[in-house]
Amino acid sequence: MLATNQIDLHTIQKYQKDAKAKKRESWWLAYCMDIDEGEKLSGKTVEIGRATFTTETKRYTIFDAPGHANYVPNMIKGAAMADIAGLVISAKRGEFESGFLKGGQTQEHLLLAKCLGIQKLVVIINKMDEPSVRWNKERYDQIKADLSPFIELYGFDLAKDVTWLPLSGLSKLNVSEKLNSKVCSWYDGLPLLTILDRMDLPARKMAGGLRIPVLDIMMNRGIEIFGKIQTGKIKIGTKIVVLPDKKYADIFSIQNSNDQYLTHAEAGENVKLRLKSAGEECEVYKGCVLCSPDDMCPIFKQFVAEVKIAMLPEKSLITKGYRCVLHLHTYAEECCISTLLGVKNPEEEEFTPKKCAKEGNVLRCIISVEKAIAGDKFSVNELLGRFTLRNEGKTIATGKIEKYSAPKQKPYQP
Predict the structure, then answer these.
(1) Averaged pLDDT for residues 286-292
(2) DSSP, res 160
(3) Is 102 helix (H, G, I), strand (E, B) or coil?
(4) What residues contact residue 229 under an 8 Å CB cut-off, 6+ apart?
(5) What mean pLDDT value characterizes the chain?
(6) CA separation for the pair 346, 338 (Å, rounded)
(7) Can you tell me the distance from the alpha carbon of 32 to that of 46, in angstroms, rounded to the nearest whole number?
(8) What is the spatial distance between Cα 104 and Cα 67, in angstroms, rounded to a whole number?
(9) How far apart are CA 401 and CA 211, in angstroms?
(10) Which of 43, 78, 133, 331 has the CB geometry, 3.0–4.6 Å to 287, for a possible disulfide?
(11) Torsion angle, CA of 74/78/81/86, rounded to 10 degrees?
(12) How far is CA 146 from CA 38, 82, 132, 329, 373, in A?
């Protein structure tokens, strides 16, 4: 944002003054995204920070996803909206090791990014100008060597899907302009913004019914809804239904990520919407899905899924009645694995009936929730059919919805 002149000098001076008053002079840059006072005091991103910047060829929305273990659920919601993941690694000696080698969050973030459908990964090795590093190539290569096996393990193709680069965010080195050889003689690659500009975006799904998972709600002279159009398109006056509560409304206004008012928007766009309901108040909350009234996504309380168990709390097994937290697109609530249908090892083809599953197994099961949720089969809509399970502050499994038990939707009658 600094490199593309999205932040004016007055705002920069204000952030620097605020950081100095809190005796956190070096944190001022984080205030561009961390606007909550609690985040500023602790130095930890809690909510999903959102900001925008533009280059000559593209307009970007940044989701600053929390890295701390306590706030991974918020990270999941932000990553669910993203096209490309930027994994920011500190090159400072001790910081990389604590985030990666000593039970830190780096590995969990890689697992979640891939599970949430992100195909392209930019590994940003930051703080290369730090006194313990000083653009040392051996340090850069060591971090690449340590990370590469895990990136590959979680499904990223190192040759096709992953880009590496060293930079210093605080000094803006290798962000928008190519590194001077006097600063770093061994890196002759492109700067970050050029890498992003040249990346191919995923195909946008214009056809099919409208699907907008609600990421956030803001009160600003009424309710503003923030989300990303996953499929379909909208325009002013479009009739929508809010699921799972099945409340009907019209789209009153549309804004893009730069707060510019639009007459229409298509799949791939992050939008801010105002709704107008004809009758009773249209209640909207995080985890709802906005759909076309004549093409609603399914609503269900129970579904069959294939689940890959990544890790479990020490000495624990998954059995009938196992409870954990389900994260499906922007939805997060407690769930219960109510029935085990079969278990297998990853290399096996057939499921075998068993009463329990352990770490590393693939499980076919029935998952139940208390309140109806809006989702879909993975084969129909990947975002609405892909989920993660968490327990005791850790991601324990990833899964795909195979089928569901849902009542037939009644057709919309205006």
Answers:
(1) 93
(2) T
(3) coil
(4) 210, 211, 212, 265, 266, 267, 268, 269, 271
(5) 84
(6) 22
(7) 14
(8) 9
(9) 17
(10) 331
(11) -140
(12) 34, 25, 18, 30, 40
Both tokens assigned to 121:
């990964």
CB 76 within 8 A of CB 332: yes
Element (H, E) at 71: none
Q: What is the pLDDT of residues 25-62, one digit of tens each?
A: 655 556 555 555 544 444 444 455 677 888 888 888 88
- Give the Cα separation of 215 and 286 in Å (integer): 5
Rounded Cα gap, residues 77 and 65, in angstroms = 8
Window from 101-110, 114-123, 347-356 with minimum mean pLDDT: 101-110
Give me the count of residues in the chain. Answer: 414
With beta carbons less than 8 A apart as the criterion, state whether 79 and 63 touch. yes
CB-count exposure of residue 292 (10 Å: 0-12, 13-18, 19+): buried
Please tell me which residue, 168 or 49, carries the higher pLDDT value. 168
Which residues, including other chains, have CB under 8 Å from residue 250's CB and lie 6 or more apart? Answer: 237, 238, 239, 240, 275, 276, 277, 278
User: How far apart are alpha carbons 88 and 147 in whole angstroms?
Assistant: 12
β strands within 313-385, DSSP E: 318-319, 322-328, 331-344, 356-357, 362-374
Q: How do residues 179-222 score in pLDDT, each as one tens digit?
A: 999 999 999 999 999 999 999 888 777 777 899 999 888 877 77
The whole-angstrom separation of Cα 199 and Cα 120 is 9
Find out whether 49 and 34 touch, Cβ atoms under 8 Å. yes
**Nearest to 254, CA basis, from 241, 268, 270:** 270
